Structure formats: structure tokens, C-alpha cells
Amino acid sequence: MPIHVNNAGTWTLVNEVYVNDAGVWREPQEVYVNDAGVWKTVHKVVTVAANTNNLNLYSLAGSPTTAINLKVTVNAGVTVTSTSTSNAAIDISSFAAGSVIQLINNGTVYGAGGGVGSVAAGGLTAQSYPGNYTGTFVTPNYSNNHLGTGYPTGPGAGGSTPGYNYYPGSPYSGGNGGNGGNGGPAITLNSNVTLTITNSGTMVGGGGGAGGQAFNNSGGGRGGDGGYVISYSGSHPAVILNNTAAGLVASGGGASGGWGNRYEGDGVGGRPGFSGITYLPTGGGSGGSGASPGLAPNNTGTTRIASAGTFTISPAV
Question: How much is the pTM?
Fold first, then answer.
């Protein structure tokens, strides 16, 4: 049961609660009310101070049975991510309708990266990157006409397929590469709650995985799409973002496609909010690049917010 106050005759929803403690206004960590003899939590403040995976806000709030005001702060320097693309980095499920959640992100929140597509028999196995690749920065192979400055790495980066000259000899044809996997979401919203996000850190979907390499003169796999910032099921009010000038909110970068020909180009995964790019100067049978899909399934027109202001990430459903 969210807290309201009477403001000049109008009952107004309270987002933050303070009490006067010996002349000093302090924010209590929990507020309870007595409802017919039963004490119930109506307001709770939680801080995420250490790196964690698969953060479930309902469990973090103590599994409240009634609607609640919940304020969650991810501290600067803290990383929240997921171990699987089927799970979000932050799960907002099971809350009673009418709950109000404030998420303040000063750290890094990102979805799991998509996996690399399968490699065809005869293809080379060490030349495709998954989403969110964290390996050493790689200089592109300019001999294969790639004009970029490098392959993006880290949270939200789409997987790349660095180019090199590949001529395995006879036979000149073989199997196709598999498609790369899509990245996972940063947040899953499966409760009819009011969610407001204040962001001065990084919040991105997982990068798509690069398409698998093919054998000679065959087709490479398609690069995976990046993950949404917010995926959802059911109804919810509009999700509002208050972003600072230092904040980045974006869907995961799309991955480059695999390729399959004797002499090939480069595939460069997209940074968060950008699609992958596949260079094929010799026409090497790529499966195509993945896309950065948008902030939410109902907001595919915006892929990246990197400026200060108030924005709608997911319109009301």
C-alpha cells in the first residue's frame, strides 16, 4: 500500500519518506503500518553495494504481500548482470499491482550477451566473438577493407567476426554457419507497477552473438540482435527515465554475420544502440548483421539515450 499525503486537499503519492530525528531529517530504511492488527511494510530502501547476477527485486524487498514503495540504489562501481539470456540482469516480477519502484543506477546494469553461432565443419573456430565480448581489444584487418577503428568490447557490445584471408583448399564448398544468439534484457518487468529509473551510469541490453563461420563458398550465420533495455509481459504504466549527462541507456549492439568464402572481409559488432556491420569485399556469403532492437518491444524507434533529460523507455501497456 503506497503512501499518500494530503497536499492542499489532494491526496498525492509519496516517492520518498523522511523523519525528523532530533532535528535532522533522515530517510528510514523501512516504514510499517498496522493494518487491522497486522504490521505491513509500505516503504523500503535498499542499496546494492556489491557486484551481483540475476537481481530479483521482489526477493530483495522481502517478498511483500501488498503494494509497496521500493527504492533501490545501485552504487557507483557496482555491476549487475545476468548469467543467461533467458533472465534479465534485474527482475521485477511478483509485486502487487499499485506498487511504486524507484531504481537509481549509478553503476553498470547489462543483459547477458548472445552466444556465437555454430561453426560449420571445415570452418575456423577462433574468429567469432559472443555478445559483451571482454577480450583484448583487436585491431581490424585493414587488408580486408575494414574501415573502422576496432572491434567494440564490453557490456552491450555486439559480437564481431574479425577478418583474415582464409583459403583451406579443396573442396571449395561445405556447410553453413549457425546464427548468433540474441542478447538478453537489462530489466524484465512482469508486474503492474509504476517504475521510474534515475540513471547516471550504464544500463544496456546484452550484445548479440556473432554469426558462425561457414566452410569455403558457403553461407555464414546471421549475427544476433541486441537485447532490450526492458522486456515485459502484462500491463504496466509508462516507464520513465530521468537520465543525467553521464548516463547511457541503450539496447544491445547487433552482431556481425559470419562469412564463408576463400578470401573474406571483416564483421564488426555494434556498440550499444547500433547495429552490426559485415564487410564482404569478395562477396563471401554472410548471413547478415544483427540489429539493436530498441529500448523496449513497444519502443523500437529509440535505441540509445546518452543525454540529460526525461524520457519514456516503455510506454504504458
Answer: 0.86
Give the whole-number percent of the chain exceeding pLDDT 70. 78
Contacts of 22 (CB under 8 A, 6+ apart): none
The pLDDT tens digits for 237-283 are: 999 999 999 999 999 999 988 876 655 567 889 999 999 987 665 55
Residue scoring higher pLDDT (122 or 307): 307
Q: What are phi and psi of 142, to 5 degrees?
A: -65, -20
How far apart are alpha carbons 274 and 254 in whole angstroms? 6
User: How many C-beta atoms surround the C-beta of residue 12 within 10 A?
Assistant: 11
How far apart (Å, rounded) are the C-alpha atoms in residues 67 and 228? 27
**Position 189, amino acid:** L
Query: What pLDDT is recorded for position 217?
Result: 67
Give the tens place of pLDDT for each residue, 206-232.
Answer: 999 998 877 766 777 899 999 999 999
- Convert 60-110 into a string of H (helix), E (strand) and C (coil): HCCCCCCCCEEEEEECCCCEEECCCCCCCCEEECCCCCCCEEEEEECCEEE
Alpha carbon distance 66, 44 (integer Å)? 13
